[in-house]
Design goal:
476 residues; alpha+beta; BirA Bifunctional Protein, domain 2; Rossmann fold; Translation Initiation Factor IF3; 5-stranded mixed β-barrel; 5-stranded mixed β-sheet; 14 helices
């Protein structure tokens, strides 16, 4: 289906409509035929491939190996860890018939892989020499969502999930922190998306974990997005699955475990955080096309120059394409590539050809720069770096401007009724108080920042004595 730019609602006026339309119009994704599913179109999937390429190298450098485990999990495995099955039960997709016959045991379509992986780990681990065991997989997962939103919340999604086993809790916790440090680096350096890292509340902790830490990002409209998580599983799963090892003294011990993941939800956050009324604004490091070359007319001399520029830029690792469509006006082509968020546009006309220059146009600012052809390689690299840095700086300013402090319940309620955003407030960490705040204000606990300092005071919700400030916000 062809779209015109005028079909795109203004992001500044209706964020939700803009988001749904821009995903379709930019050809990132389409709706799948089953409720809540999504088709990743090539342009959108290319973003995921870039994320995967960058992260996979970091994960392997740490010594974590890739593997793949089955999609179907016998129900008995999922039930082994009581907290885990209780937490995921409302979201499970269950297979009861196979080959035309009712199955003797139901199969769960993978919501996450702890149980099926740890069943194997229990057979693979015997001695301290087998540890640490560190495996990651790039796969899909299914959670039966009631309210879906392309990329941000779909019934089926893509992700990576790392699962490691260690001989000590200290080593496991170091792995939990390493994974979150990796995610923070990836979000800031690739997505140009800042956020807060912190511990989740007991109620928000991953089902089966002792501790969960998350990266919390802020979206336009002041809503918070849990962008990824890293979990200290303690010995909960090792006891349920009998994952034991013989230590150096010859005694059997239960292992310590971690799991950590980042999904295609991250792409949704990037779209929402950086877009504008004109469409996407992709950070250069995750843009499938970093530079689009537009000959003003389909003339041989202009196209020949465009091809030479393309070859030169490709040689230096730039992802570049040419759009010399004869059946579309230059205005239409400009609008198309602005909508798709390509960071840099190079225009070549008769005037540019005569002056041996191109006109470079930044997607983030709209600034036009005349670039001599003999300086193109260096200038393009500098401009792409500048765009990446500018998008991060803009997002950091937005985060700063929309992080508030509430010293009373009335202040918290007032902020939630107006600007929303992240709200730093003292909280007692009691689930009843947490539930009351969420019901009355829609603000949920996002995290307690890991660098949070002790601060004696009264809980913002119930007034009881407490020592730490937590981040609150309305969740997507």
């Amino acid at each position: 289906m062809a779209f015109l730019k005028k079909d795109l609602p203004k992001r500044s006026e209706n964020l939700s409509d803009w988001y749904n339309k821009v995903v379709l119009m930019a050809e990132l994704a389409d709706y799948g035929p089953a409720k809540g599913t999504m088709i990743y179109r090539p342009y959108g999937f290319a973003i995921w491939e870039l994320i995967q390429k960058e992260m996979d190298a970091i994960i392997k450098e740490k010594g974590v190996s890739n593997a793949y485990f089955p999609l179907f999990i016998p129900e008995s495995l999922l039930k082994k860890e009581e907290t885990h099955i209780k937490g995921f039960s409302p979201e499970l997709a269950v297979v009861t018939i196979g080959g035309g016959e009712e199955l003797k045991e139901k199969l769960i379509v993978r919501p996450t892989s702890e149980t099926i992986m740890y069943d194997a780990y229990s057979r693979w681990i015997h001695s301290w020499r087998d540890l640490p065991l560190m495996i990651n997989q790039w796969n899909n997962a299914v959670r039966w969502e009631k309210r879906t939103y392309m990329f941000l919340r779909t019934t089926e999604f893509l992700w990576q999930e790392g699962h490691t086993v260690h001989s000590t809790h200290e080593e496991a916790w170091n792995m939990v922190v390493w994974a979150m440090d990796m995610y923070k680096k990836v979000y800031r350096e690739l997505f140009a998306l800042p956020g807060y890292v912190g511990r989740k509340s007991r109620a928000e902790t991953f089902a089966g974990a002792d501790t969960s830490i998350s990266y919390e990002s802020l979206m336009p409209g002041g809503k918070a997005l849990q962008s990824c998580t890293s979990h200290d599983l303690g010995q909960n799963f090792s006891k349920a699955f009998e994952i034991t090892f013989q230590n150096k003294e010859g005694k059997n011990e239960y292992a310590w475990q971690t799991s950590w993941g980042l999904s295609t939800r991250s792409i949704g956050g990037m779209i929402m955080a950086h877009g504008d009324d004109g469409g996407l604004r992709l950070p250069p490091r995750l843009a499938p096309i970093q530079v689009i070359i537009l000959p003003i007319k389909a003339e041989a001399a202009l196209i020949d120059t465009a091809e030479k520029i393309k070859a030169e830029l490709k040689k230096h690792g730039v992802r570049v394409q040419i759009d010399a469509s004869e059946n579309e006006s230059i205005g239409f082509r400009i609008n198309t590539w602005e909508l798709k968020g390509v960071p840099l546009r190079l225009e070549i006309g008769t005037k540019e050809l005569a002056e041996e220059k191109v006109t470079a146009v930044r997607r983030d600012t709209g600034e036009k720069i005349a670039v001599p052809l003999n300086e193109l390689k260096t200038t393009i690299s500098t401009l792409l770096d500048a765009i990446q840095a500018n998008l991060l700086a803009q997002a950091e300013q937005f985060l700063k401007d929309n992080t508030h402090t509430a010293n009373s319940y009335d202040e918290l309620k007032q902020i939630m009724a107006t600007s929303r955003g992240f709200i730093s407030a003292l909280w007692c960490e009691q689930e009843a108080c947490e539930k009351k705040i969420k019901e009355e204000t829609k603000a949920s606990t996002r995290c307690m920042p890991l660098d949070s300092k002790e601060e004696n005071g009264a809980c913002v919700g119930c007034g009881n004595p407490t020592e730490h400030r937590w981040m609150f916000g309305q969740s997507y």
